[in-house]
Amino acid sequence: MSEKIWFLLQFKPNSHRLAERNLLRQNFETFLPMQEVTRRKSTRFVSDLRPLFPGYMFVAFDPQTAPWRKINGTFGVSKLVSFDGKPKPVPLDLIAGLMRRCDVAGKLLPSRRLAPGNQVKLLTGPFANFVAKVDTIDSNQRIWILMECMGQRTRVHVTADFLQLSD
To answer: Which residue from 5, 47, 49, 68 puts its CA 20 to 30 A from 87's CA?
Structure first.
């Protein structure tokens, strides 16, 4: 069995459930990451699930064998994002990272609570298994760590997906 290839599609306004249901009926696998949004409604706060990427979802198929052209004619779908008439694959590591951060229903889980001063281990890249210290986390959730490398401290920017709290 070949590895899944994921593509991006745009759905019509407020039609993500309709598009997802109709794509599943046609045996296309979909992934729609959702996040809980709290908003004020009159005098109370209301929470509901909204797509993480408003207007877009992911769909998996093999472009060589699947009848992918019928996706554009699916109720609820606006269009499959394409360049020069061909759908462009989404990097698998991006999809895998999103899936790791979601539960089985596609709801985005709260990020692991990292705080300045935490000892962390890098999971991938040339510094995999290096232990570092969280220096700062800015307002956009970018994480800066301090690494000890060849006797010098180096400040590096990483995302939470590449870090694990160290024991």
So the answer is: 49
Q: Are residues 81 and 155 in the same domain?
A: no
Examine the domain organization and report whether 27 and 82 are in the same domain: yes
CA–CA gap between residue 51 and residue 121 (Å, rounded): 31
What span, in angstroms and rounded, lies between the C-alpha atoms of 165 and 122?
Answer: 9
pLDDT tens track for 66-99 = 888 899 999 999 999 999 888 999 999 899 888 9
Domain count, the chain: 2
Statement to judge: residues 76 and 143 lie in one domain = no
DSSP state of 2: P
Given the structure tokens 């890098």, which residue do they identify?
A: 122
Q: How far is CA 40 from CA 14, 43, 46, 74, in A?
A: 20, 7, 6, 34
Question: Helix/strand/coil (H, E, C) string of 100-142?
Answer: HCECCCCEECCCCCCCCCCEEEECCCCCCCCEEEEEEECCCCC
Domain limits for position 151: 119-165
Better pLDDT: 43 or 30: 30
